[in-house]
Amino acid sequence: xxxxxxxxxxxxxxxxxxxxxxxxxxxxxxxxxxxxxxxxxxxxxxxxxxxxxxxxxxxxxxxxxxxxxxxxxxxxxxxxxxxxxxxxxxxxxxxxxxxxxxxxxxxxxxxxxxxxxxxxxxxxxxxxxxxxxxxxxxxxxxxxxxxxxxxxxxxxxxxxxxxxxxxxxxxxxxxxxxxxxxxxxxxxxxxxxxxxxxxxxxxxxxxxxxxxxxxxxxxxxxxxxxxxxxxxxxxxxxxxxxxxxxxxxxxxxxxxxxxxxxxxxxxxxxxxxxxxxxxxxxxxxxxxxxxxxxx
Amino acid sequence: xxxxxxxxxxxxxxxxxxxxxxxxxxxxxxxxxxxxxxxxxxxxxxxxxxxxxxxxxxxxxxxxxxxxxxxxxxxxxxxxxxxxxxxxxxxxxxxxxxxxxxxxxxxxxxxxxxxxxxxxxxxxxxxxxxxxxxxxxxxxxxxxxxxxxxxxxxxxxxxxxxxxxxxxxxxxxxxxxxxxxxxxxxxxxxxxxxxxxxxxxxxxxxxxxxxxxxxxxxxxxxxxxxxxxxxxxxxxxxxxxxxxxxxxxxxxxxxxxxxxxxxxxxxxxxxxx
Lengths: 295, 273
What we know:
Chain A is an alpha/beta fold. Chain A has helices at residues 40-48, 68-73, 89-99, 107-113, 129-140, 159-174, 186-192, 210-217, 232-238, 258-266, 282-294; strands at 2-11, 14-24, 29-33, 55-60, 74-77, 147-151, 178-183, 195-200, 203-208, 221-227, 243-245, 248-253, 272-278.
């Protein structure tokens, strides 16, 4: 659906994208992660054919980005979607439907699907940011797009709408649409996407599923335990290497040492009140890979 | 075609909601009626009907007002979309930039035609109530009406070009006012000054007619005055109308919209959202 190879883009001498290669297959949901200015929006605009690129090749649905064939099959949801405030939601969606060659009468059903049927005939000028975002999603759903490019799609949505939004994405992916979305909200893409791509300063730092990224980063697992009264010293004697903090002891170890540590701790189970384990979070992974760019 | 019409329909609806239709119709109507009332009072019995006389005054009104209304509607067309952030999304849809421009042009031309039609129509109606002979002036009025819309198309295209060049609505508005002043007011003043200084030399015979034809507003005025029987009754540049064949003025007037739209498209193609 989408293939980028060795994509490079410069703005006035500053490198915005540097040798980025990636692909999105049909039915796959890929999250593009990165700080502001990491190159996410630039990458998306190149894929959409809105701005030209300087080096490498981009193939969208087997065609040149921005060509008629590519535009016909690609849907876009811009970051903070904007529409003319004097038009109603229904008029706006009807217009976009006609531009894609579909009957304007489908607007009602699309607005229904994103939960805007009550406000369909009010002017967009009266909408909240979340409602405008949903109009943006409705226009992106027109005509079963084969590739969806969504720039920060859930910004401004409340948690319930977010869940609804990801359910719609799941359905679309199940029908074979390829989805590329960017996000700041790491915890929500964690469970809702198939693969993640981390960009930092225009370079692709890491790519893969969450577990693959965890293995690649090899970040320490944290084991926190609460000792029963007076047993702290005994535990630290038996299993050295822990940090004492109040009544709690914290151990950090590599992934492959985790089971050994747990076995030794379970030998002390009478002295333990509680035990908690934290795998490296997506935030940890993200800052690990982002730091890699600075070095 | 459906896409262009959808652009036009949406754009027309926006013009209605923004009160652009109401403002431009009211403006044209008020000025036309004032001119009809003022213009028909002193004419008395000069042999031509009152409508033909009023058409000459309406021509002078149209030269100022039609480009102004056209520029006011068009300066926001691209810069406004850029500022609102609606342009990137529109350009990912399967329609070309030419289709976007033509759609907007159709809508704005429709608004202009409504305004011009209402204004001139009311003036004609008012005169016909006083003087039934005014029917004789109808061909001149019809010519004025369609040539006003053509003149409007020139300045709509120019407005789109400025809008694409400026990127921001405030900048585009400034450029539009500058263009209006330059083409409508200063051009004629400059020519007049040069004529006086030249005192019947090669400028008057060779450059002046070409300079008049090169300006769409002057071509519009020349065409209407030369074709009108009341040409002699009108003051100002009417004398110059004799130096330029009406056919050349018409050709200039018809070529300018294409040139302006071409410029607009070239400028719009350079815009990266």
